[in-house]
Amino acid sequence: MDTDLKPVYDLAQRIVPWLKPQLVFNLIDDSAGESDSFELYSTDKLIHIAGTSISSLGVGLNYFLKYYCHRSASHCGNNLEPADSIPLLTDKVKINTPFQYRYALNYCTFDYTMAFWKWEQWEKELDWMALNGVNLMLVATGTKAVWQKVLEQCGYTINEIHDFLPGPAYNAWWLMGNLEGWGGTSSQELINQQFLLTKKILQRLRELDIKPVYHGFYGMVPRSLKTKFPEITVVEQGKWNNAFDRPDILVSSGEMFMKMARLYYKVVKELYGEFHFFGGDPFHEGGSAKGLDVQKEANAIYNAMQEAVPGSTWVLQAWFGNPKPELLDGLKNHKKQILVLDLFGEVISEWKDREAFGGTPFIWCSINNFGERSGLYGRLEKIASGPSEAIAG
Asked: Residue 320: which region, alpha, beta or left (left: phi > 0; alpha: psi -120 to 50)?
């Protein structure tokens, strides 16, 4: 077995061990620059799945299961019992996709749904991602271990660090700059568990050719930082939803901004390896830009990211006016390294109102449900028409 293909054979073993002995996977040359694709064909009672990437091989396996074996894996339950006989293909089937990136998850998912997941649940989720062609996925776990090390090196005590970190079910809103130190404390044991879990998630993602989007540094700092370093300049962000104290935004003009950014990315790399995609949204659901040159701040955030990982991409969430037009204007010379997620595409489609974000690459997204809603509330007409509209532009 080609060691490069072991992850997809392992995927087949986890999902359909009864089918694995008859599967032959191969990578095909994509140097011509064609879009991601896979091929299916049969020889000598074997099922051949050839693809341009590990990701496309996973989709090819899922396609064969769905349309030939009539089997499926889903979040609602699986139908993966052994088939009475393995169907063979009389003709070669070739499927390709025009989409470079197939993205999954948003910050809130990690707390509405995944706050207390163990590896057993994550492994099933990542297998589903691989079967369905996801090749870019947000990872919002393990960030407390990063911030703990960063703040330790800034002279914080463990109690002061825990005053900044939120409880285990509020990480999303903390990372989006909506609150700090809310929802109880996270024990050191839980921080350590999440660190180890995140390493396993990242290892599996990289094996399955799914690029992780990790949280970057966008200037968010504890409100207590100004008491530790009185010389710094911050912009207080006020309250979120008139109830929660937001972390401050560190102004980029001072030396402390780059010191914090460099330290943050250094710790991320030490703990989890190198990333090429980073999230992070200044002024999410409000926040104050008073006195800030937003274009300048955008460039500083971007430049710090590029210094840490040259060629990396900043992934921004389009959500009720964000990213601010001024922020995108500040990044107009770096559009190839910016990716906007039009999160609520089936309802709002901000790309239409904002002229495709000024020509910035974007992904049309859909949010199927929100917290505490167990039904599927997607607007089917928009889901059916939205992606094709976005392609036509």
From this structure: left
